[in-house]
Design brief:
Chain lengths: ~325, ~325
DNA sequence: AAGTGATATGTAAGCACTTACATTTTTAAT
DNA sequence: ATTAAAAATGTAAGTGCTTACATATCACTT
């Protein structure tokens, strides 16, 4: 069943059928109804490939995500797909993992699918080494590329993110002022946002005149690794009374560590997570966490994309403010 | 840059270029190399829409998922996308939510995208009312439809699932034999697998001669609702010493409830989750949970799909065995 | 009733590929 | 060197849609 069949059955030309398909105003109401009812009766579905050929696009967006099984990224994917679909776009998902080559391949794949734009989810994309960003910049020359939780100065990328630097600076300062004067920071990966978090932490402690030495540590995503790491740090004689992490999983590892060592939370040690994922309420005690407004960022990203498609003007960078969600692992008033 | 440009630059016909594109053996090695290098130099990417038109397909699979922000379903989506991509297929994701109409619309959307198959993730798809399954069966007439964690007797759907009935029957029986003689079951939704879990529970308790009355309860997915529900059940005088749930989130709600009431886990009350998600280790005490082999099911689903595409013969239903992962909310030996 | 502009419809040429069939070239056997 | 079969390549007709341009129809005006 194609446009020719429909045109015959409706007694019109294929151009008219096509116009109906594309909501053209240049069809009389009578004809439109006729054509639509023929389509309905024959449960006709236009062929996307043919339309894509003719139109040069078929309203699909590529979502490049490091790991959609990560609870935070999974939420991002969910919000994005939902909002895109509401705007008439569908989503091709591609999970890259954390290897550069795999990311590049996935990007190539999405570009070859002629997606109208590409959204990068997971701040792990913008890395320290500039050459690791090239494939993103190149993609940006072909289609609009949106970064969630990332930013690249002076690039043609569109960025929606949260002010993680400020957020971490703020909690760290508050903890310091409250007597938790010996904090450490655990992070997962030095992505753009990871870097911001770390810098926020460092700024706060340096303002208090603390030595940053041995206060910042990279951890694997596995909870047991986090526990092991903290155990060995502790057993080597190192002491600390606050742990600020770059995501909630790490913070839960920290909680497990503290409980196992008999440290009291939050009196003896404060713990702050990041992302304010559902996990924050699953653990015990429930986790104080920085909410970085993921849903808002995703909605904004999709809105921006639509404006770009409409050739409206658009900011290259939009930054939201995080919010500290206080629970039981800290004793802020 | 299209196939004509390439053919000119390589000094061959478009048919030859197309053959190179399609890995046809009917091209000499010399010509193939020549064409490939011209493509490379001009960084040519074949147009998916044109290829899709000519070939009638472009190796894309639709993934219909109730809610990809659900930690269990997010994992399924992750495994599926990964395995599909390894086999040269890309994935269009569509999150339906739990409303029938929305599910139907998403299915239509995916079919209109001419996906080569559709995978339904989230057992919520096969419901009690037969008419709610019609849209799935109709889709099954057009393309292969695979069900993850679902089954529909006598249909043309391909199903990969885990024997949840047996799994729940087994733990429930073990708990009963261990003296936890007053169990209740909480479930999220009466999907196919939800039904299996419930039936497994009921069979176990009826074999022990217990009254099933008031032992099985539907809960919302929200943790606070679960806690509230159990609170009011408890406050109304109802007592129980084992809670078997249909997912880990519910079980964590149960843990929170038990701790708040001062019930001792696992001596006073045993709690068993389902899915063995990461969550099971985040809570306190860590949760005993039924592992229903999601990764294996997903891999099997993709393999099955590839066999279908190759016209190899394939089982309509494949069932795996679950495994009980013992942690701290039960005291099995 | 003829003429005008607006509106509706049709024709045909893209869009970038695939592939059956026809033709040419190569290889190997005589 | 001749010939047949096999291999490589080319030609041209799809694939199902969009849309510029041409043409037909309609509603008014005079």
């Amino acid at each position: 069943m194609n446009i020719y069949d429909i045109s015959k059955k409706a007694g019109v030309s294929i151009a008219t059928v096509s116009r109906v398909l594309n909501d053209s105003p240049r069809v009389s109401e009578k004809t439109r109804d006729k054509v639509l009812s023929v389509m309905e009766q024959n449960s006709y579905t236009p062929n996307v490939y043919a339309r894509g050929l003719g139109l040069g696009s078929m309203n699909t967006i590529g979502i490049l995500c490091a790991d959609s099984s990560d609870i935070y990224l999974a939420n991002a994917v969910y919000y994005l797909e939902r909002d895109l679909r509401q705007h008439g776009y569908s989503s091709i998902l591609c999970c890259t993992g954390y290897e550069l080559e795999s990311k590049q391949n996935c990007m190539k794949l999405l570009l070859s699918k002629r997606t109208d734009a590409i959204i990068l989810v997971g701040s792990t994309f913008i890395e320290k080494r500039a050459e690791h960003n090239n494939y993103i910049l190149e993609a940006g020359m072909e289609v609009p590329v949106m970064l969630i939780n990332g930013y690249l100065e002076g690039s043609n990328l569109y960025c929606s993110l949260c002010d993680e630097h400020q957020a971490v600076y703020d909690v760290t300062s508050r903890l310091l002022n409250q007597g938790f004067d010996n904090p450490i920071h655990l992070y997962r990966a030095l992505s753009y946002s990871g870097l911001q978090k770390k810098e926020g932490f460092l700024q706060a402690i340096s303002e208090k005149g603390l030595n940053p030495q041995d206060r910042v540590h990279e951890c694997s995503g596995d909870m047991d690794d986090v526990i092991d790491f903290l155990d060995s740090l502790y057993d080597s004689g190192k002491r600390f009374n606050a742990i600020i992490t770059s995501n909630d999983e790490l913070a839960i590892g920290a909680i497990k560590f503290a409980r196992a060592k008999g440290l009291r939370i939050p009196e003896g040690i404060s713990i702050v997570g990041h992302n304010n994922s559902k996990l924050a309420r699953y653990c015990e005690p429930e986790l104080t966490s920085i909410d970085n407004k993921l849903e808002m960022i995703c909605i904004h990203t999709v809105t921006t994309l639509m404006r770009i498609f409409d050739n409206k003007n658009v900011a290259n960078k939009t930054m939201f403010s995080a919010e500290l969600i206080k629970r039981q692992t800290t004793s802020f008033n």
